[in-house]
Amino acid sequence: MALTDKKFSLWMLAWPIFIELFLQFLLGAADTLMVSRISDDAVAVVGFSNQLFQALTTLFITVASGAGILIAQKIGSRNGEDARTIAIMAVTVSAIIGIGLSVLLYLIPGEIAAILQLPEHLIPLAETYISIVGGGMVLIAVMSALSTSIRNTGNTKGPMYTAIGMNVVHVFFNYAFIFGAFGFPKWGLMGVAVSTVLCRLLATIVLFIMFLSSFERTISLRDFSLFNRKLFGDIIRIGWPLGVNMSCWVFTQLLIFTFLAMLGSNELAARTYMNTLESFCFMLGYSIALAVQIQIAHLYGAGRVKEAYGLAFRAMWIGLGVVTVNAFLIFLFGKQLLGLFTDNKEIVALGVSLLGMNLLLQPGKMINMALGNALNAVGDTRYTMWTSVFSMWLVATALAYYVGIALGWGLIGIYACMILDEYIRGTLSLLRWRGKKFLRKAESQEIAAMALRKQTALEA
Question: What is the pTM of this model?
């Protein structure tokens, strides 16, 4: 038990996740910085397209997220064989969904961009980028299932090492294809797209090899025909509210980007640059939230509910300290950092106007992430889903449109509504966690199981 406890400690889980997320941040920052050398329009297209891709990932994140929580719970309850079967099904189903999305995005990228109100002069660039990167959506689907499964076995280092390699290769290919270095063709934005797909392909291969030996019994290729109806039902039971939750976030973000596109390409570019800076703020906090989800799911599966309850608050307070410091650093140096991405004074001014508001945004986001993930870890996914449906759509989207577009407050009004949404969901998650609904249920089940074991021992 001691070895398992060490493997599933908050720090041992969190630091590799942080390194992985930090490298993804560097990847995104390098992308944005290099693409900005093409044009601010190219940056706007990449930011817009990435919101689209995130929206579509919800179609397979349902399976991956539900499977991840169940894998940690099954390992906590010493049921490794079920954990293995769940992981195999997650990869297979995610791949099938990813193939369908890849075909759709490859065939009609321009039509999708037009429906989402992308400014007309940006559509030719969007067609190129969406068709190539979107055509590789199957890689994102499989990567998500593989890395989530591996991470929830307690091995957070494997995805981290993969991210290191992916980061290095992506920066190299970006530089080569954008600027025509080392004898590569000078493809500009198309080169960024090709670089992204190549790196994801290499990362998928590495993660797949790692995945095959992640469980007590090695996975073979013929095992991918496995399908357990009951276990898949458990995945969907936990996963579908997570999918709805995630879809609420990404689709509302996509709508917010659509609102920004109505305001103009400068607002769209400014929000894309601020996304990069915000990622730095909450990255370590988010890694703590992901780690605490894995640990609480493991403790919950093992029946150690008192430890699970206190751990959520510990993670929240640590995360609050981290994100507040990071947001303050961004507030102090944000103007200089934005100047690295663009020399357009209007875009920089728009970004600078959001730096103070970011100080308010990040603590609310941390409370929401820590306690929302804790609720998900014990299977209370429907509650987090309903809070998302209520707050994201009414506050972060409908109210944002009214304040930002109808009342003319623009980017500031939209951002204020995003802040309000985070605090509403964080407060609701806090109240639910303090109520201990699912923890009390697990505690009762554990007491009943102990009584049954004791009675059986006495009869024997």
Answer: 0.74
Rounded Cα gap, residues 81 and 374, in angstroms: 25
Which residue's structure tokens are 């999305």? 101
Degrees, nearest 5: CA angle 117-118-120:
105
Alpha helix ranges (H) inside 213-354: 229-263, 265-301, 305-341, 345-352
Give me the amino acid identity at 187: W
Residue 186, number of CB atoms within 10 A of its CB: 12
Retrieve residue 51's tokens.
């919101």
Residues with Cβ < 8 Å from 260, sequence gap 6 or more?
267, 268, 271, 411, 414
- Which tokens go with 445? 């089940």
Report the amino acid identity of residue 76.
G
Tokens for 351, please give them: 């970004």
Q: Which of 1, 156, 152, 159 is nearest to 73 (CA)?
A: 152
Give the per-residue SS3 of 40-58.
HHHHHHHHHHHHHHHHHHH
- Tokens 């025509």, located at residue: 180
CB atoms under 10 Å from CB of 107, counted, come to 12
Q: Look at residues 414, 316, 330 and name the one whose alpha carbon lies nearest to residue 368.
A: 316
Q: In this predicted model, what pLDDT tens digit does every residue of 267-276 receive, in sequence order?
A: 878 887 887 7
Q: What is the pLDDT of residues 321-372, one digit of tens each?
A: 999 998 999 889 888 888 887 888 888 888 888 888 989 999 999 999 999 9
Cα distance between residue 242 and residue 378, in whole Å: 12
**Taking a C-beta distance cutoff of 8 angstroms, is the pair 133, 49 a contact?**
yes
**Are 192 and 34 a contacting pair, CB within 8 Å?**
yes
